[in-house]
Amino acid sequence: CMSKKNVIHLEVKDGKKTILDKEVELKDLTIDEICEYEDILIEHTHTLQTDQPLSNIYSRTLKVIRLATNLTDDEIKDLGREGRMQLFRIIVDQSEKKS
User: Fold this and answer.
1) What is the 3-state secondary structure (H, E, C) of 28-65?
2) CA atoms within 13 A on the CB side of 24
């Protein structure tokens, strides 16, 4: 029996207008990927506490999206910056629930 894939719903709005509405499948991470992911989160949490909280935020966001999903580079590009940030937050929230 196939277990329900880990799918999240990403919706990006611009005011009332929905500019992106997409189902994104989260993949099952290997232990190496889990460790890499947790390192990125530690770095992220640490950076948020510094005087430059947004330092490298976009490359961290991209790393997390690449690790956690099977989206292609073009698909990731198509999410737009707001979509990527939102997806990042959803992925982080999901992983907080799991651990």
Assistant:
1) CCCHHHHHHHHHHHHHHHHHHCCCCCCCCHHHHHHHHH
2) 29
Instruction: Note the pLDDT tens digit of each residue in 12-71.
Output: 998 999 999 999 999 999 999 999 999 999 999 999 999 999 999 999 999 999 999 999
Tokens of 82: 């707001």
- 43 Cβ contact partners less than 8 Å away, ≥ 6 residues apart: 60
Q: Which residue has the tokens 């651990």?
A: 99
d(CA 61, CA 91): 10
pTM of the model: 0.86
| Cα–Cα nearest to 94, from 37, 55, 13, 56 | 37
Whole-angstrom distance, CA of residue 99 vs CA of residue 90: 15
